[in-house]
Amino acid sequence: MASEAPSNVVDVKEMRQPDLSEEWQRRCAETTARLKETEGELTMVQKRLTNMGALLETAAGQRTSKTSTLQAEVAEERRLRKEAEDKLWAERRRCQDLEAMLSHEHRLRRDVEAAQHGPGELQKLRANLASERKARAAAEAAAGARGR
User: How confident is the prediction along the chain (148 residues), in pLDDT tens digits per residue?
Assistant: First the structure.
């Protein structure tokens, strides 16, 4: 019946042979050494992965921080731009007011000069002044509609 045993089963007599035992001991020692070497490599890889994970977390935190900082800077820049635009529009309105005052002053000077030349000239200037006032009121209404 021993001859009917499968080929992968080792006979007990063969295991007791001193040469086979030394061979198995040598193979076990080699395998153990390779396992220890592999465990060492695995430990180093795990340490590298841990370090890389920490670096990734740090980088992600820095990126989030930078993004927040940039968003705050953009918001501040927009606020400053809006402020500057508002000041610009206020200055434009002030310039328009000054131009209107200057124009009015010129009309008054013409009126004075016309009054010195005679009553007919004064009536013409008053008619011109009335039409200029209507035109200015229409222009201001249009400018006010655009400014809103």
Answer: 444 545 555 554 455 555 567 888 888 889 999 999 999 999 999 999 999 999 888 888 888 888 999 999 999 999 999 999 999 999 999 999 999 899 888 888 887 877 777 767 777 777 888 888 898 888 888 877 776 6
